[in-house]
Amino acid sequence: MKFDHRFTLTGQTPSMRVYEADGVSMRLDYFDHMLRVSLLRRDIPLLPTWSVCPGGGDVPLAGRDKLSVEGFRLQHPSVEETEEDIRFTLSGTDFRIEKRNFRITASTGRGVLYRDRSGLAYNFAGELGGGSVHCTWRPEDQQIFGLGDKCGPVDKSKRRFLLAATDSMGFHAAYSDPLYKQIPFYICRHSGGAYGVYYDTCSNGSLDFGVEHDNYFEPFNSVRFQEENMVFYLILGSPREIVRRFSELCGTAAPIPDWAFRYCGSTMEYTDAPDTDARLRAFLSHCDRSGIRPGGFYLSSGYTQIGEHRCVFHWNTDKIPSPEALAETFKEQGAALIPNVKPAFLTDHPLYAQIAENGWFLHYADGTPACFPFWGGMASYLDFTNPGACEFWKSGIRRQLADRGYRHIWNDNNEYDVQDAAVLADFFGHPVPAVRIRPLFSYLMARLSREACLEAGEEKPFNVSRCAIAGTQRAASTWTGDNVTDFSELRWNHKQAMTMALTGFLFFGPDIGGFSGPRPGRELFLRWLQYGLFLPRFTLHSWKPGEPSTMPWLYPDLMPAVRRLFDLRESLVPYLAAACERCRLAHEPLIFPVFLRDEEYDAESDCFFCGEKILACPVFDEGAEAVTVTLPRGRGGWRLRGEGEVYGSGETLTVPCLPDDLPVWFVREEETE
Length: 673
Prior knowledge:
This protein is an alpha+beta fold. Helices cover about 20% and strands about 25% of the residues. The chain is built from ten helices and 40 strands. The strands form ten sheets. The chain has an eight-stranded antiparallel β-sheet. It has a six-stranded parallel β-sheet with strand order 30-27-23-20-19-32. A six-stranded antiparallel β-sheet has the order 33-34-35-40-37-38, with helices on one face. A hairpin with a 6-residue loop joins β28 (about 425) and β29 (about 430-435). α6 (about 385-400) crosses α7 (about 440-455). It is globular, with a radius of gyration of 25 Å. It starts with 7 loop residues before the first strand and ends with a strand. The mean pLDDT is about 95.
């Protein structure tokens, strides 16, 4: 009967129980500080996961069983069961599950922590529409954190978001949605405590944290997505512990080479110019004259051009006569080149016919390649769930890039804007509509690029992917996309970074100075550099037709101030590299909002942690000449810029900071016994 589903126990082990009603099963898996809940429909196969990977290593290329318990620390709670409910205690949290409609409530000594919505919380029989639906109780004082690169305030409560990834060039960090990441993980914090929820799906959908109201239900949050089966993890602990446990759930991030923490140049201007080789060599000379030591340069896609079209795995030798010689020049200067690759092949690409003949594109039922608008033409997306396409991609990376000296890859434009349900993916021999797994292609692309560079002999390839799902950090780092140059955007870019920091990625950051729009003004340019010094990714990247690219020497008369800032960044590289490696192994964020360490700290603060010891205090307001800082509470004090007087925890002070000054930061001084 709809709206009235009575579940009964049908199977169990010490760490798992299964209940069934009306053709639907609800499975509970008990893990350390984590409950996995699975709503499984009898006649619909459960897709694998590529996001969940506890215990190290990586998932098989064709995915991992979503119900696997490998790598988890299993728990065996004592379960009390009656005709009406199920009760158990997990990691100090008391659970009660009503068998009617399987309504879960979790409580602690502080009161109710988590509760499914009253009445009906799950879409068991289509009562709540199509696909999967999960509705949870919404506390009046809730705060919501996480969700990947979502825009707006750090607290996402009273907002609605699309669960999707798209190419959002020129987005506004205050409100644009969706962006490039698809990570349905969030933390809910309220007066009763905090919990995390992760939905293990690659499906499109939506998340609502207080926009929707329904007269027949209590205030609720809701998550909806197209996939019919639903597997989610309820993660227990403080916000800091939840972030760590989610990161551990998704697996260990790939190591980052030390050079990647240095300034890395990037601009479309150089590779779109006819004299690309000369421009890139001049970049090295200009850095040398400016006293700047670059770690590398992101090689935008203009190096692949045939006419006006960009063709991955093609070298335009009019622009770069000898790719090998150029790579060797950068290597001699201690800098890497990171070439841009794209997963779509324009219909006039020299390799298009070969790929189509082999069936390696996303396609229709008759085998015809599906075509989509892409960079000035029509193109087909490579199907990374087709083993033949996987080998083709790895071969292209090795032969055209890695074997020529380019062993660090920039995976770009991989959001796969596929909305037609008639477009199919091979899905490792079991075809499915590509729309059901859109962001999966980006993970597989990044993973295969990394594997190709490893096979070519690179011990620590630096791999970056614009689109990402949870778990992509095992294969690639990321950045937050094509932002806009504007003073008002600077603070919102920071809030976006603090949001991204909670979802398992270590190495990321915005395009410093802004990608699109006018050149940054002098004050904005310096303020963005002051802020960017404390981000893992320190890259100025831009595309500003008719304007000069945003390079360190954009304003020659500001070079003394710029050089001081770059010198400071260089001095921070060992700290950042060591902190990143520690965080990688400990599943801790590298940069993060202060409230993870001081839970009473304002979640919207401009201040943030860079590693465990540095508190960065940027200036985001145009015309400001000082910054007011409240130092986080905790043991020990804080030393301004690592020298001079030590200030006490919790103290508030105002520090002068002009645009051409060094930024304001504090170093934690630990108490000694």
